[in-house]
Here is the input.
Amino acid sequence: MPLETITGAFVRRSLPRRDPEGHKGTFGKVLCVCGSVGYTGAPIFAGRGAVRTGSGLVFLAVPESVWPVAAVKSDEAMPFPVPEAEGRLSLLAEEPIRRRAESCDAVLIGCGLGRGWQTDALVRKLLTIEKPLVLDADGLNALSGREELLQKRAAPTILTPHEGEFLRLGGGLSAGREAAAAAFSEKYGVYLVLKGHRTVVAAPDGRLAVNGTGNSGMAKGGSGDVLAGMILSLLGQGCEAFAACCAGVWLHGRAGDLAAADKGERGMTPTDLLEQIPYAMKDL
Here is the structure.
């Protein structure tokens, strides 16, 4: 299939309709499995990204020692503590995460998780959750050398790597970003968001798109967590997976452009980007 450029018109058509008689349960319940000691901002950015993009209920599963920080920082999202080992999620976190996921429409795993044998093993176990799934950051790194596990999933699976993470997953860039994303997506049956300048979105059925919004001011820690939360939100609201990826990256970049226009690329922050998400959507 030909390479398409994501447009505002496409995003406008992709956004789920807001039922005027809806309630908080109508607009998607999502779960973010994120965070570790030293990376307490990641679940906050992901959760706020989901809230700003329209989710009705946003839950954050975080390590026990991170929970007090997340609780203070969260007004709209709802963090809850799960078992940890050395500041990172442990295998004992599997059961409470599964219980919460059962009542949710989509799940995000990875932002700020950190690396450890228990955390990596937990990520691989959670792949059997029968919900649409977004994998980011250390959720991706945990699958390095075990990519075949992705082929066993039946529910839609979205991966959001930057180029370094993509290479660790066994991807190759010698043929170019577009061809590499398309080949990986088809091989493993996943939706791939290959982040960077002109982010590429690939679907396993051959659909391929490139994004033109965004700027260098977004190249700061936390921006990727926001994007993961935005895609999660759209997925939880009922967007088809490819549409959720395309709309998420376009709106993320558009919000970044609005933040840059206001604060400048050097001084803008992921928090500034978050505040512009509603305006990026309102403009449509």
